[in-house]
Design goal:
128 residues, mainly beta, Immunoglobulin-like, four-stranded mixed beta sheet
């Protein structure tokens, strides 16, 4: 396995869909990706799904960049999606360790969310 180390500096909350509670303190973690994953060697930008958030929540990239989302949740946490607010892309439900990529060839601001956690698990890709 290849370790994708992500230093995260965000508030954390328990793994609960209905009662999200912010807790104080930084979060650091490790996300493991199988060597056979299609993202190994082909990644432009990685967005981690961790503690029911997209990290980083906002990403700025040039046109033509491949953005890859990786579910870095523990195995006992339900899956997430990365879903465009304007139907530009839609991932499958991704369990722990799964990934999804999309190449951004058009300039613009692309807001997105996770289907089961749409009220608070949101992000934006800004393509310049």
């Amino acid at each position: 396995m290849v370790a994708l180390l992500t230093a995260l500096s965000v508030a954390t909350w328990p793994a609960c869909f209905s009662e999200r509670q912010d807790l104080a303190g930084p979060l650091t973690g490790e996300c493991r990706i199988d060597l056979g994953s299609p993202i190994v060697g082909s990644v432009g930008v990685v967005v981690a799904m961790r503690d029911f958030s997209f990290v980083p929540q906002e990403v700025r990239v040039p046109r033509g960049t491949r953005v890859t989302w990786v579910n870095c949740e523990n195995e006992n946490i339900d899956g997430h999606t990365t879903t465009s607010d304007t139907e530009v892309w839609q991932s499958q439900f991704m369990t722990s360790g799964a990934s999804f990529s999309h190449v951004f060839n058009e300039s613009g601001r692309f807001s997105y969310h996770c289907i089961p956690h749409a009220s608070f698990m949101r992000g934006v890709i800004i393509v310049e």
